[in-house]
Write a structure and sequence with these properties.
Chain B: This is Branched-chain amino acid ABC transporter permease. The complex is a heterodimer of chains A (232) and B (288). By secondary structure, chain A is of the alpha/beta class. Chain A contains 9 helices and 10 strands. Chain B is globular. Classes of the chains: A alpha/beta (232), B mainly alpha (288).
């Protein structure tokens, strides 16, 4: 359903990812594992067209995805960047509403849905997003991406700097969204437990390329692999 | 001192404050919201004034000349954004240098095309009598114009989908693109709206402030100070600051001299910035 094909890219002349290919099936949750600096975020940015492709391309439903990020978002790619990047001087409601309206959905309905799905945002609905805690911002960034009604959700280190109770809640929400709406998810993570709890398949990256494709069971049992690749 | 004199002073001071606010609103959008220090902002005001003046000279009624001035300045604003400003977002000093050059170019163009002296268009004649005093009606009308313009921009920026997109696109252009907003196009429109508001100010104030090539300069300093004192909640802050500073200066000027009025303006500005280095609204938790 969603494919990154032979992605090569980076910043300026510095190539960070080389010839990376990844596929996510419809309604599948796939993890992208690897230590800091192996190119996970760069691959996510490549997938969202936020960095120019030196070569390679992205396919959605067998068709080439549009080259501009705004058009790619409208084609069904939802993106939650590392570091959240909520719109700080807009309210929680507006952060969600603008994402929905931009994609031709009702902002009011999207906000209602989001507040039902993420009750922790409810008391903050009219607060500026910049004043929320890290975990709340992460949940808001997720709610904002979901308001665009994506076919595939790209999550870049969603657990970074988030307290454990919220991480558990987030895992539950992601599984439910995946089950109920059939949204495919590609999640870049260093938190192995989080990935094992939601993903069925994983790619392991090292030095800018995919080193290994594996499933949940072998990842769970292969301690040596865990040690070697993630240092856990 | 009689009551009618006091009422006259208060009304005319409120009208001066409103004139300052009208000249400032465009800057509240361009500098306050977008963070662009557009040193050519006063020249957009001047272009609006000349556009309205030229239109009336062709026999077009003044009320229709105003939207023409808005259209002209919005168009020029959009071109300036695409050619210059969009390359310089987040580069404060480069933007200042580029727009300063632009203001010199616009000023010289106006001198070449219109000369340095131009006829006014004469104030629409209606007066308001308070006791023994008579006030010209048109400057008083500016109080209503300022209120309507402020409410218009507030509603546009906070209650419409465009307004949300505009704020998202300028706060985080890349993230805005990643949720489907065409940030570049939205930013062009926002900058054009700011310039259009300057053009509106030049046109609507034309009966009070005649069009001259250097007219922008007179407004832009006080307008910039107003927006800087206002701080991050740009629109509400600017309205408050314009009424407080502009009105206060005008009251001072009526009782003392116009020099004292200006001294009041700049002293209070300095004092407020000393108290609130990030603007009076720095701690407000509201959006516009």
């Amino acid at each position: 359903m969603f494919r990154i094909v032979n992605a090569t890219g980076g910043y300026g002349k510095t190539v960070i990812i080389r010839d990376v290919s990844i596929a996510v099936d419809k309604a599948e949750i796939v993890a992208l594992l690897g230590r800091n600096g192996v190119g996970k975020s760069t691959l996510m940015r490549f997938a969202m067209a936020l960095i120019p492709a030196l070569s390679g391309h992205v396919e959605i439903d067998g068709r080439n995805a549009p080259e501009a990020p705004a058009k790619r978002a409208k084609a069904g790619v939802g993106y939650v960047p590392q570091g959240r990047y909520v719109f700080p001087r807009m309210t929680v409601t507006e952060n969600i509403g603008v994402a929905a309206e931009t994609n031709g959905h009702s902002g009011r309905l999207a906000v209602e849905t989001a507040l039902r799905e993420f009750p922790m945002l409810r008391p903050k609905a009219d607060d500026l997003a910049g004043g929320l805690s890290g975990g709340q911002q992460q949940v808001l960034a997720l709610a904002r991406a979901l308001a665009t009604k994506p076919k595939i959700l790209l999550l870049d280190e969603p657990t970074e700097g988030v307290q454990p109770s919220i991480i558990d809640e987030m895992a539950g929400i992601l599984k439910r969204i995946n089950r109920e709406r059939g949204v495919a998810i590609l999640v870049a993570e260093q938190d192995l437990d989080f990935c094992l709890s939601i993903a069925t398949r994983a790619y392991v990256m090292e030095k800018g390329s995919v080193q290994l494709e594996t499933d949940r069971e072998s990842l769970r049992t292969d301690k040596k692999l865990q040690q070697q690749l993630l240092g856990v | 001192m009689e009551l009618d004199y006091l009422a006259t002073v208060l009304l005319s001071s409120l009208s001066s404050a409103s004139i300052l606010l009208i000249a400032t609103i465009g800057l509240a959008v361009v500098f306050g919201l977008m963070g662009v220090i557009n040193l050519a902002h006063g020249e957009f005001l001047m272009i609006g004034a000349y556009a309205a003046l030229t239109a009336t000279q062709y026999g077009i009624p003044f009320v229709i000349a105003i939207p023409i001035a808005i259209a002209v300045t919005m168009t020029i604003g959009a071109v300036v954004e695409v050619l210059i400003i969009r390359r310089l977002y987040g580069r404060l000093f480069d933007t200042m240098l580029a727009t300063w050059g632009l203001s010199i170019a616009f000023y010289q163009l106006a001198v070449l095309i219109f000369g340095t002296v131009t006829p006014g268009i004469g104030m629409p004649q209606f007066n308001l009598r308070i006791g023994n005093y008579s006030l010209a009606g048109y400057p008083l009308l500016m109080i209503a114009v300022a209120a309507v313009a402020t409410v218009f921009v507030y509603v546009l920026m906070t209650r419409t989908v465009y307004g949300m997109k505009a704020r998202a696109a300028i706060q985080m252009p890349e993230m805005a693109r990643a949720i489907g907003i065409e940030s570049a196009r939205v930013n062009t429109l926002t900058f054009a709206i700011g310039c259009g508001l300057a053009g509106f100010a030049g046109a609507v104030l034309l009966p009070i402030v005649p069009a001259t090539p250097s007219m922008g300069f007179a407004f832009v300093i006080k307008a910039f100070l107003t927006v800087v004192v206002a701080g991050p909640v740009t629109l509400t802050g600017s309205a408050l600051t314009a009424v407080g500073l502009g009105g206060g200066a005008s009251v001072t000027a009526s009782f003392l001299t116009s020099v004292a009025g200006d001294a009041f303006f700049f002293l209070i500005t300095a004092f407020l910035l000393w108290l609130y280095p990030l603007g009076i609204t720095a701690k407000w938790r509201t959006k516009m």
